[in-house]
Amino acid sequence: MDVLTALLLLVHLIPVSTAKNGASSKSRKRIMPDPVTEPPVTDPVYEALLYCNIPSVAERSMEGHAPHHFKLVSVHVFIRHGDRYPLYVIPKTKRPEIDCTLVANRKPYHPKLEAFVSHMSKGSGASFESPLNSLPLYPNHPLCEMGELTQTGVVQHLQNGQLLRDIYLKKHKLLPNDWSADQLYLETTGKSRTLQSGLALLYGFLPDFDWKKIYFRHQPSALFCSGSCYCPVRNQYLEKEQRRQYLLRLKNSQLEKTYGEMAKIVDVPTKQLRAANPIDSMLCHLCHNVSFPCTRNGCVDMEHFKVIKTHQIEDERERREKKLYLGYSLLGAHPILNQTIGRMQRATEGRKEELFALYSAHDVTLSPVLSALGLSEARFPRFAARLIFELWQDREKPNEHSVRILYNGVDVTFHTSFCQDHHKRSPKPMCPLENLVRFVKRDMFVALGGSSTNYYDACHREGF
């Protein structure tokens, strides 16, 4: 058995991975730890395997948990696309051979996979907002193209959809049996992997997948900022954050040495190898149990991988401490959070449109939202990560509405900056909707410092 096989088997020895199970609702100290399975120190390979999110055992989740007198009003789902082929190639090496056609009896398996392929192949009449209508509806290349969704990625989101269907439709009856197109709000970036991930989730979620009722809107920005994307101060935060990343890398002599060794193996300048972002390709090798590449000068190996992955983890830790990324995130996430509370407020008025919203997105979408919400301990978005906002009505006090926020099935409501102390004052297992509204309308700007009280002023303030 090779090292990669042994490491991948490790995932299947963990009954429910920490990223999926995490803390109980009573344990509020940390979001993700599990004393049984979590290593005592940060292990780069363990973290990478959680990131792969290899479909295995069915996961337990906290979605839909509420006292019986609460009624589910609307659900807002943000996903990262599923497992994909790398976006970068390690120079002068053979690309990992991964088949991106969907084969029902090949692992990873899902009972709906065959029907999904059949349904997607008949979807030529699907009408989406341009340019989405020119994208393929499912992956279908014998050798994956760069960035293409894999069978693993499809299965991850079929699983997500099935899980949400069991909770939100079967248990809570969020949508009526005769649901209509205007009760869904669907939006995706213009990448095939995000459209296909969204379709896979919907296929697992909806009781009858009717092309006439499925309409995806196109979002040109990975921040989902719609008409509010111009924000000079946000870009300044990002430039300072990128400078911080660069300086941290310069300080890491072991990282430089590792890049140098790898560059010699593939016979390119170190600068060229680093620019090729080798970790992206190496993660694909790890997630798919494909050996790292070799040349006549030697092999890229697990030790190289560990050094680069460890640096990534250290970078995330410093990013949280330095707060530059938080400034970027507060401005980057504001438009989509503002849209979400707008939808929630309309639902509280009894409107029946857009009860289920799905944003099919990227790590660079979810990461700023997690940061802006104050979820500093949340792991970097894995493949097929899901962040969910639930809106609930108290049947005993119909004018009272509350929210729950869940990340990969873990209830993180009381880890958010706008609700972290609420459970100390209230026995309710949720957060008042007005806390979230106040956070988006006012407190996000207060957290930035300065005197701005709205998004436009915060984006254009002088002297930053």
Automatic annotation (TrEMBL):
It is a single-pass type II membrane protein. CDD domains: HP_HAP_like. GO terms for biological process: chondroitin sulfate proteoglycan biosynthetic process; glycosaminoglycan biosynthetic process. Keywords: Glycoprotein, Golgi apparatus, Hydrolase, Membrane, Signal, Signal-anchor, Transmembrane, Transmembrane helix. It is found in: Golgi apparatus membrane. One of its GO terms (cellular component) is Golgi membrane. Transmembrane segments: none annotated. Gene3D superfamilies: Phosphoglycerate mutase-like. It comes from the Eukaryota. One of its GO terms (molecular function) is phosphatase activity. Belongs to the histidine acid phosphatase family. Responsible for the 2-O-dephosphorylation of xylose in the glycosaminoglycan-protein linkage region of proteoglycans thereby regulating the amount of mature glycosaminoglycan (GAG) chains. Sulfated glycosaminoglycans (GAGs), including heparan sulfate and chondroitin sulfate, are synthesized on the so-called common GAG-protein linkage region (GlcUAbeta1-3Galbeta1-3Galbeta1-4Xylbeta1-O-Ser) of core proteins, which is formed by the stepwise addition of monosaccharide residues by the respective specific glycosyltransferases. This is 2-phosphoxylose phosphatase 1.
